[in-house]
Design goal:
The protein is α/β, with parallel strands linked by helices. It contains eleven helices and six strands. It has a single domain, classed as Uracil-DNA glycosylase-like domain (Uracil-DNA Glycosylase, subunit E, 3-Layer(aba) Sandwich), CATH 3.40.470.10. Helices cover 47% and strands 11% of the residues. Helix 3 runs antiparallel to helix 7. Bound molecules: uracil.
Length: 229
Amino acid sequence: MVMADRNAYLAEMEVVCWRRRGSSVAAEHAAGSAVGSSPNQAGTAAGVSWEKLQREVASCTRCALHDSRRNTVFGSGSTDADWFFVGEAPGREEDRQGIPFVGRAGQLLSAMLFSLGLSHEEVYIANVLKCRPPDNRDPQGVEVNNCESFLHRQVAHIGPRIIVALGRFAAQALLQQDVAISQLRGKVHQYNIGQLPLVVTYHPAYLLRSPTAKAKSWQDLMLARSAIE
Ligand code: URA
């Protein structure tokens, strides 16, 4: 990505551009993508189990959402990713394309990634729910309960260095805590499976409605970065 593009994304995130002393952004980027590759990726067995998981999601009928979906939305990005971002559930466009975060919230998520010097290709992005709730209503408890094991298996397979929960539903499902997002932000949690650091931030859709919260979201992303440095 050329520098002008990156600055445009930073401006969209309303953050001030900074970089580590004595390092270029490109060098940071390269260093970040080189570390921490998952031991789970080494063998064919891992590839087979990942494909099996994809097939299970694609054919899932555990809850009523399968009746109204056009596509399941498994996830996208690198299975070798250091950063794993977790959203809530597919929206209309994601349901149409079968890819997470391709609508307006996805554009802002792209800005958040680029402000970190990351691209969609080098992180992994998935949702708690793999099917779209009708009319974009909130996920129901039974849907989360039926679906969340897929997410836990995705995290276990990829073995990221950090999980970023986007919004209340992702945070509560991953941490198994029924607590307001205001109480979950601002600290590094431990995700129990694998003892991974997990940071909670606002959902990009919320940030579109409440742009003044972008500064807090930027603090959360910096906290996540500091947790793995
Ligand atoms: N919102 C989400 O939580 N996930 C998506 O994939 C799109 C919008």
